[in-house]
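Worked example (supplementary).
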Amino acid sequence: MLLLLVTFTPIVAAILIMIGLPARLTAMAASVLTLLISAIIFLRFNATSGFQFVVTFPISPELGLNFALGVDGLSLLMILLGAIVLVAAVCVTGEIEHHENAFYACLLLIAGGAIGAFASLNLFFFYAFHELALIPTFLLIGIWGTGNRRAAAWKVTIYLALGSIILLVGLIMLYRAVPVSARSLDLRMLHAGQIPASLQSNIYLVLLIGFGILISLVPFHTWAPEAYASAPAPAAMLHAGVLKKFGLYGLLRLALPLLPDGARQWSGILLVLLLANIIYIGLVTIAQRRLDWMLGYSSVMHMGYIFLGIASANILGTTGAAILMFAHGLSIALLFGITGEIRKRVPSLDFDAMGGLAKAMPLAAFAFGLGAFAAIGLPGFANFAAEIMVVFGAFQNGFDYQHFHVFQWATLLALWGVVISAVYMLRAYRRTFFGSSAKSELVITDIRSGFRVPIALLVSVSLLLGFFPQIAVNRLMPTFRNYFSATQ
Amino acid sequence: MLPWLILLAPLVSAALIALITGRARRLSASISVVAVLVSFICSCIVFAKSEIAGTEIPWIEFQGILRVPIGFVLDSLSRTMLVLVSGVGALIHIYSPGYMRDDPGKSRYFAALSLFMFSMLGIVLANNFVMMFIFWELVGLCSYLLIGHWFERDSAADAANKAFITNRIGDFGFMLGILMVWAATGSVIFDDIIPQTWRITSNPTFLTICVLLIFCGAVGKSAQFPLHVWLPDAMEGPTPISALIHAATMVAAGVYMLVRVGFLVQASPVALGVIAWIGTVTAVMAALIATQQDDIKRILAYSTLSQLGYMIMAVGLASDEAAMFHLFTHAFFKALLFLGAGSVLVALHHEQNIWKMGGQGRNLFLTFVTFGIGMLALIGCPPFAGFFSKDAILSLAYNRNPAIFGVALFTAFLTAFYMMRLFVVVFFGKPRSPAAKTSRESPTSMLVPLAVLALLSLFGGFHFFASHFLTLPHEREAAAFIPGIALVAMLLGAAGAIILYRRRIEDPLSINLLRHKFYFDELYRVLINATQGFLARVSGFIDRWIIDATIVRGSSGATWSFGALLRLMQVGNLQAYAFIFGLGIIWIIYFVLFR
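After joint prediction of all chains, the assembly is encoded as:
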């Protein structure tokens, strides 16, 4: 029941807003309600067993098609993330010049769709909810975006649609690979070992490409920075923070447990790609000359660490990956939220044209600093705890005293990525906020004090998990322990 | 309970200031001072009561795979460090309000200072590698915040970035070393690793690599060659910060860490050799540079580098006792020197060039006396604190490695030279600027810490005092003439400086190589530009013009002609497209499932 509420509150609110209820008020109420319910679910979740809060409505038993929702530790974290970022995104939304109701409806649909996808126990709805969330993303960029928004909207639409279709093909292949007697769309019915090892390789590859496009895995990443640079801040927050995690969630939920042999076969390629995400994209990020593009690329880069956790395919790595998904969502949402406010105040986000904003915008500088240091893995924030698990998990794989093997080298490069991320993030922070102000005649005001609410929300949750990561680890443990006890 | 109070009192203070009392600057300062006093008093109690044991709570726990607690180690080493860090910290907290009197960012300053105390005490208390790394990074953050305190200044903002990024390079090695130790022994907790050390030591190459990687962390944090470049620039921060973080405590964390994991470090002769020589090179290089600097704080910064070099050298010569002894005395006299310099700077309205000072001995008498004591301690004049600890290191070097002894002796000579130069130029002669003529002594709140530190610099090295805190090193076979030689080197250096610099109004020497600090900054700039900068530009180009423009746009162009279906849907309206797209998906699923 609670899950139905948390999934449909944003969606119903979106419909009500389109019907004519006051947009901002309704959106605010709905998002806070969503957050409250997901917090209740989080607190009442029993950290020792599998899917909980399950609701099922049969649709077509012979196909195994039913509308089923349920949460385990992994989906629990993702749903909570969705609810938190939704509240933050609604809070930071300022004046919308036209079609205010549609704007808020789109925001709510992204969050509702993402939460629905995370809560779905049925492959069909898992996919359909994601599509539901994708479409308003395109609209938000195309209609309310900035800069070259039409080109960006087209690009992201085509690119992500392509990813979705490849994903769909992969899902169908997955469905058909299971012997007829055991075929089901219900996630609970799918188990490791049902799919013959010989078929796993191809399915895994298709899923990896499909999900990979959605996650901006190199070389399928070029949509991301452009889209985030053009998207209105709340849309960028929700997409980079929440919806993009759908692909990673899919890999953790489907590819890893159901296709362990496929995962093993492609792990070499995946390592190369994810290191490209970390090192190559890290260098590209250093080369960026605009704040919004820099952030877009940095978010692409951090996907590499989550992939590293997934690629290491052990309990440390995957737990770290799941927590990093959550942590990255919080920090990138904060950064995009503040950047959106800066965009409204300065003529250009070019580093050369900015500087000294900390004097005029101390609160913004403080918040951006928190987000920036969280993003580059400063201890105390959840990102650090997660990255520790990821690098420990990766380093452990195939370790011996005599030589470094692939995973050790990969960990080494990933650690160098931590240096790279400090370079680009601190440089951007310094160029934006420190030094002498470039345009002294410009009168710049600080962000509204109402911004304290989303900032406090995002930062405090990140700090809480950073100080007490075990809260998340305990909830994730049953899920991932199943994965690896079944495959070994 | 008490150890938690030591650690958390400053954190609470930082949180209170950041969240609540940001506007009330004087209140913020008081909160911060109270917090550090709480830490100091608790540290003294913990120091006195040896029955207080360490505790721990879990932080990350994966049964049988990885266990990272937040736990405290309370042995004589950490107890001494607790008292030292919180004690010097308390003095500098008391000094700070006077120095930062009119600063609009005073609350921010004290919040960061409290956060620093929390982080530094965390390093001291850490009972495992990961916890140490956590606080290791946090002191780096505080250092960044405080170096960049005056963020409107480009030089301060750049220096802050440089410090953080340089430290991250060191931490890259540190983390890798931690991973290797963990992978080999299955634990990150010091007490659990010790019985498993054989797993590492049985493979000498592995051990050497492990130790050198861990040493990387110390190279970054303790600003050893080749990562020393950040520390002189860190002088952009307020002077009390230079005293606390960039002289007395944080930069010594590298030495403390090496001593803490001595059970690994001391097992690898190869790594010890590297460590000893890195320390030696740093010591002499920094001392050489210091002889030709004109900025009072930079001279002191290079002297810090040089003294840290001595400590690292002692670690490398396999004497943790000598390293800790020098760390202990250095904390007093270097904090004293920086605070004394701060007192001069306040009197001279933040003029840092020593050639614009002169004659301050008369105007700032108390500062002059205490600074003099600090200087004598630093150059190793008996009976001041530095004499004993430096003598211990020199004797050690003489016994273990004559080449290093030679360099260390030369460094002692240079130390006396550059410190006496500074002292003569600043405090004697005629005032050389209007501000120098009218300078007035600093407020009492600033002079009290000076007096206390001067006393400690006087007595800190004596056996009756230091032996309460440390196991003092004693080289039995040390030749009795070592102190004599050291004394001669010191007198030569000091006399040389007095002869050369008495009554000068500008530097008679001008050695470009030293003035430009061996061109390290320039060299690194070229190197970074040639590697990272070049790679970044190439990657940026590839991403924009090859992956995006050619492949993605090109293939998306091909896609347009690929499907007639897509072409039909190209009605130019995004909403319509999105709608048709959704329908299409449903249609495909229907087709697949029901065929």
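Two points are worth noting when inspecting this output. The first strand of chain A starts at residue 52 and ends at 60. Chain A touches chain B through 73 residues (CB under 8 Å).
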